[in-house]
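Format notes (please read before filing issues)

Several people have asked whether sequences and structure tokens are stored in separate files. They are not. Every record keeps both together, in the order shown below: the sequence lines, then the token lines. Line labels are part of the format and must not be stripped during preprocessing.
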Amino acid sequence: MKRFLGILTIVGFICSAEMTYAQVDKADQEFEQLSYTTALELYKKAFEQTKTVPILQRIVECYKRTNRYKEWETWAAKLIAADNKNPENYLTYGEALVRNGKYADAKQAFYLYGRYSNGKLFESQFLQASCDSALYQMNNPQTQATVKSLDILSTPYSDWGLVKYRNGFVFSSDRPWEQKTIDKNSKKLYGWTGRPFLKIFYVESDPEKNVWGTPTLFSDFFNGEYHTAGAAFNERQNTVFFTRTRFVNTPETGTKPVLRLEIFMSEAWKEAKPFKHNSILKYSVGDPAVTSDGSRLYFVSDMLGGYGGTDIYYCDMGTDGEWGAFKNAGPGINSKGDERFPTLMNDNVMFFSSNGRIGMGGLDIYRATRSKEEWKDVIRLDYPINSPQDDFSLVVTKISGVPENADKIKLEGFFSSDRFDSKGADDIYQFTCVMPQFQKEYYYKGRTINNETGLPITNVSITVIDLASKTSNTYKSNDKGDYEVPLKPNRQYEIVMKKNNYFASKQLFNTGDQLRPDMLQSDLKFDPIVLDRSIRLNNIYYDFNKATITAESQNDLDNLVGVMKENPEIIVELGAHTDSRGDAATNLALSQKRAQAVVDYVVTKGIAATRIIAKGYGKTKPLVMCDNAADCSEAEHALNRRTEFKVTKVSAIASSK
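Then the structure lines:
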């Protein structure tokens, strides 16, 4: 009987082992097919039967790839207990601890990773430094930032990548849109997450009033069979770029599928076309970001030859409408890790996410500024915008200066994160933050031009006055008429431009919100000073048959005062004219009084009386000849009733300039 029971025990053990091997084999197949959610459940059942390290390693990897941070940490601790000599186990355990905000414990795990591994000391020290930095930042936040979940769009699913579009926003989500519940046996589920594939949705909204509509599918025409996500629009919003995914078998992987990304674009909502530089059998191309005019496309790729896992690249559209060769954005922005999700603000500022720099854990959001073709001045956004989890896809919807600190700027917008207070895998968050200005200085540039001929004027003197500090600097346009003057951000300037024999020009310029290069470019046009050429002053009115200046005329007379103050070298004659009706002597006397009234007003504004002479012409110099007063219309009489000034002399002051 004992022998029989012993045989039954052996048979039971063999059957149990065979069942475990079958489960592991099936789990391995699902893992290789990137179906981590299904593979995880099979591995866990197998681990109940035989607690082996290889199965435990796969369980940890499944939790890691599905971003289930708490379970990742728990099972990574079991892995350490089962195999405490493998340095890679300490690495994955430390990464899990970081994602859960346990930086002190993570630092110890990274120390042991460096101790037990060969040649990983620098990486170990880098990871430990990141822990120290994150701990300090969470305990000593340096920024004025607020973060709030956008609950109206939050679901138990993945919702991310909000970007402005027309009267609302588009975003990416794997929420079920054909039915309210998920059929786990459906072929439309993504095996990696166990949820539907990502699609692009649209929601009408007015964020200022916190009014949001009901999200709808953006366009079934754009959404593909697998993931379709990450929309980017040009400024005119007539072209959209987005990412699609496909599973492919490459010559290197054989029957093992690889998930690859491709960029597609649609112009005027015509059929979506693949991006020229897609190469799905060799590498992924995704995360598009386009400049406002649509002429440059930034994207992310894991192609060989980069600085890390995934790098940011760009290419320009040629005059023939075709995309040119792509270039790596360079080491100023790319690291040894992964750079993802670039977004542009006014073309010369980029926000992107990276896990290759000292940060808080996972993907952190960084900001970079572009000077010519070089991206530099990379800074990490502070806590609580960055968190121990993944933070990405930041977009700015509002920019404003900080009155009390000209070196700072306030941003408002949205970003995405899978932090612990999210309702689902990823959520969209609103933020405000104050941070350093994007550039230490801007360059106001253009060309100085003769307003009459359109030809450039050389050696124009351009004086820039900082109205706050009262400091000034003077520059000159070159022998081609080009000028370039540096301005600091968030300042108000008075810019005075002078050239002999031309009317000087003055303007106020505020750089508080001027963040686009094209907003800092302007051709400066100058009117030549021509002696004895009459220039009409518009909107100069008098009471009927009187020389009293009406109140509505004062604005234009103040403009004349401005011209004379800006051009102290000119001496002018102020002429008044009447229409052809009435007695000639009476009109002559009335026009003289009116001209003198204007001169008196100008003198009260600080102009020397010796620089302006009153001259009444009566009806002696009409613009429209009337043989008989009745022959002219009221409009023609109005043309003849006018106030003009002309430069009669340019004093010696001009020669000193």
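For reference, the curators noted about this record: The longest strand covers residues 391-401. Residues 1-16, 179-185 have pLDDT under 50 and may be disordered.
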